[in-house]
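EI: anyone free to look at a 173-residue chain?
SC: sure, send it
EI:
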Amino acid sequence: MYTCLRRGSYFLVSFSVGRWTKETCREMIARVKDCLEGGKTTFYSDGNDDYLYVLLEYFEDIDYGQIVKKRENGRVVGKEKRALIGNPFMNGIETFNVENFNSILRNFLSRLVRKGKGFTKKAPRLHDAIALFQFIWNFIHKLKCKKTPAMIEGLAVKLWTWKKLLTYHYATD
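SC: here you go
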């Protein structure tokens, strides 16, 4: 699974479910591009090279930095920060926000716990569960600042409730 989180607000921008391939990465980055208004964008990621190739397919004016963790005996013993495209802020190249978020995601969704009874064996079911979680996280779940990620991003003015979610009438034209 790939996830894209907006730093500062913890807004879950996009995700894609599948094997760690360029195609799965491409699905997520295409959705991210659809959400952006244009202008210069900054991305930070781990050492997965798929991001580099896919970001170049979708963006012309970006700053992209990567952090690669060096491990010995399963423990992190060092980090190497790389500026791969443009001029990213070197001290900003970190992945702890998304790593923390992925831990939160595993705690909320038993479908992601490999040895649990609820572990998902079919990608479409996992995708649906994460899509629902994405809305709950962005619009219903309050952070420590008493706002939702959507409120921080200016996409909502009030906290959504389960009742509002379940009774919302979406008009189509």
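EI: Residues 123-140 form the longest helix (18 residues).
SC: 👍
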